Amino acid sequence: MFPLQFLYNFFYIAVVTDTEEKKKKVVQYDTSMYKRGDLLEVPRTLFTHFGIYLGNNRVAHLIPDILPVLTTDEKAIEKMVTNNRLILGVIAKKASVRVDSLEDFAYGAEILVNHMDKVCSRSPFEGEEVARRAEKLLGSVVYSLLWYNCEHYVMYCRYGTSMSFQTYQFCKVVRKIVCSKRSCLLSFLLCLFIMFYMGSVSIFGIVSTFIIPSTIWMAS
Q: Which residue positions are annotated as catalytic (predicted)?
C-alpha cells in the first residue's frame, strides 16, 4: 500500500505544480473556428496528439494515464494529465478516452483542423456521427504505442478505420535501420563475439551465427 500511496502523492503534487505553471501561460482559443466532429491535431515534442472536438470547448482524446490505477479520486484523475502520468501510462499500457477543454488538450500549441482529410483515402463521416462515435468510446482502454494510440482512436471515429500514420512512419524507419546491410554485418560480428566469448561453439551457435545475419541480409 505504501508504494501506491507514495506514487499517488507524487503524481498529485505533479498535477498541482503543472496546473500552476500552465496558468502562467494560458492560450485562449477561438472556439468558433471548430465544429462538432472536427479532428484536431497538436504537435508535441516527439509526436502529434489527436482529438475529436465535441463542441462547447470540449475535446475527446485518448491519452495514457497511470493515475486511475493508483487512486479512485475522481477530482485528481480529472485534472490535466501531466508528463509523469503519461509516460508511466505508456509503460503500463493504461489509458483512457477522456474529455478535456481545448486549453488542456492543446497545452498552448497550434491546432490543426481536419488535416487528415487530405491524407486519408476515405471520406469522413458527418460531424455529428464522428462526435457520437468519439463519445461512445469514452472510458478506460488498453494502450499500445504501435497498435492503439490517440491517432488510431480519431481515425476510427472520423473515417471508420483504425490506423496510425505516425506508427507506419516509425516502423518504416526501424525497418530501414534493422534491415540494412550494415546491421547484417554488425549482427554477424556480434554473434561471433558472443559465441567465442562465452565459449559456446556448437552446431546451434554456428547455425545461429549464419542464419540471423542471412535473414537480415535477405530482408534488406
A: 150
Render the burial of 29-63: b for 16+ CB within 10 Å, e for the rest: beeeebebbbbbbbeeeeeebbbbbbeeebbbbbb
d(CA 104, CA 117): 24
pTM above 0.90, yes or no: no
Q: Is 150 known to be catalytic?
A: yes
pLDDT of 107 reads: 85
In whole angstroms, how far apart are CA 129 and each of 2, 17, 99, 121, 135? Answer: 45, 38, 17, 18, 10
Q: Where are the domains of the chain?
A: 2-171, 179-219
pLDDT average per 10 residues of sequence, the chain (220 residues): 45 46 63 95 88 97 93 88 90 94 91 92 95 96 90 96 82 65 67 65 57 52
| SS3 state at 39 | strand
Choosing from 150, 157, 184, 191, the catalytic residue is 150
Q: Does 3.90.1720.10 match the CATH number of domain 2-171?
A: yes
Element (H, E) at 99: strand 94-101
Q: What is the pLDDT of residue 197?
A: 66
Residues in the chain: 220
